[in-house]
Amino acid sequence: MKALAILLLLTAPAWAHKPSDAHLSLDVHGDRVTGRLDIAVRDLEGALSIDDGDGQITWGELQAAAPRITTYIEQRVAIAADGTPCTLDLGTAKLVDLSDGAYWAVPVSAACTRTPHTFDVTYQLLFDLDAQHRGLVHVDGQTVIMRDGAPVHIQLGAGTSILSFVRYGIWHIWMGLDHVLFLVCLILPSVWKRDSLRKAGREVFEIVTAFTLAHSITLVISAVGLLRFPSRYVETAIALSVVAAALNNVVRAVDARWAVAFSLGLLHGFGFSSVLIDLGLPSHELIGALLGFNAGVELGQAAIVIALLSFLFLMRRTLAYQALLWAGSSTVALIATVWSYQRWVA
């Protein structure tokens, strides 16, 4: 029963999509702050139950819910200039289409008591519903990523911190269950009948290097705009890559798992790039963010691999390892198949 509950949890729609985003863009004009807040319509539905039950959210339903949406935002978003709260005012919203669907776009203005040098932004939308939600605050040429409801202190004119993107890359790979399961499935057989951790480690190094090279190539190509695909196709393909990696452990169609890691890793690079593309970074920030994010992904990935390899090598001669290899891979293939369907029809 517990295993079934876990399976149902992992195949729930919350795991089937890329993390939700909202964008708060602000411009400073003396003691006046103007901008716009974009929130995905699907996220507002999850928070406020806007749909009347027919599965289609109409403009009329959004207009009827507008007072509730305004209240929801006012209770969870606040701005302070140099430690003094600013008076936040929301304008008349409209719908805009971003890369992953329709967004409720609300004009934002704030009256502050002085020309600010620092901002304290409080953003608490949706975190109670989606732990992977991101609030993306764009202000004065820098981007700050909000991953929880804690206020963030922003020094105007400081620019975007590359270190923040390193941390974000680590967080993204650790929270990206599809990427983690893909790696796990590739590494699982590496300790099979190995009498030396060094030999197992050599094979894992080949796999991880191939995966790193592949996703780094497509991450760069896509992030700079040379080649991009719709999010729906990319996310579905990533789920199918997890299916393929898991099934390869069961049927052993390809022995060279580094080749599997490289070929399918190309798909994961497009998924990583969508994280940066959706940030809406200006061109002068993109290179630093790209380098920092990719470095974070590699660091997070390395931590997972080191811990996993040590654990698997210790249990390689046990029945538990056999169960993990065969039954575990089959379960992952089933979960990822459900993900691919959910992502395609979403």
Identify the notable features of this structure and list them briefly.
346 residues, Growth Hormone, Chain: A, seven-stranded mixed sheet, four-stranded antiparallel sheet, 11 helices, 55% helix
Describe, in plain words, how this protein is organized in 3D.
The chain has 346 residues and is an alpha+beta fold. The chain folds into 2 domains: 143 residues, no CATH class; 182 residues, Growth Hormone, Chain: A (Up-down Bundle). Strands 1, 2, 5, 6, 7, 9 and 10 form a 7-stranded mixed beta sheet that branches. Strands 4-3-8-11 form a 4-stranded antiparallel beta sheet. A hairpin with a 2-residue loop joins strand 1 and strand 2. The N terminus is likely disordered.
Distance between the termini: 28 Å
Low-confidence region ranges: 1-17
Query: What order do the SSEs take from the amino end to the carboxyl end, as H and E?
Result: HHEEHHEEEEEEEEEHHHHHHH
Number of helices: 11
Q: How many strands, which pairing sense, and closed or not: the largest β-sheet?
A: 7 strands, mixed
> What count of domains describes the coordinates?
2
Number of beta strands: 11
Computed structural class: alpha+beta
What is Rg? 22 Å
| CATH topology title of the largest domain | Growth Hormone, Chain: A
Shape: elongated
- The CATH architecture of the largest domain can be named as Up-down Bundle
Share of helical residues: 55-70%
Query: CATH top level of the largest domain?
Result: Mainly Alpha
**DSSP strand content:** 15-25%
Write the layout of secondary structure elements.
Layout: H1 2-10, H2 13-16, E1 21-29, E2 32-40, H3 41-48, H4 59-76, E3 77-81, E4 84-85, E5 87-90, E6 94-98, E7 101-111, E8 118-123, E9 134-139, E10 142-146, E11 152-155, H5 162-175, H6 177-187, H7 197-223, H8 231-251, H9 257-277, H10 283-314, H11 319-345
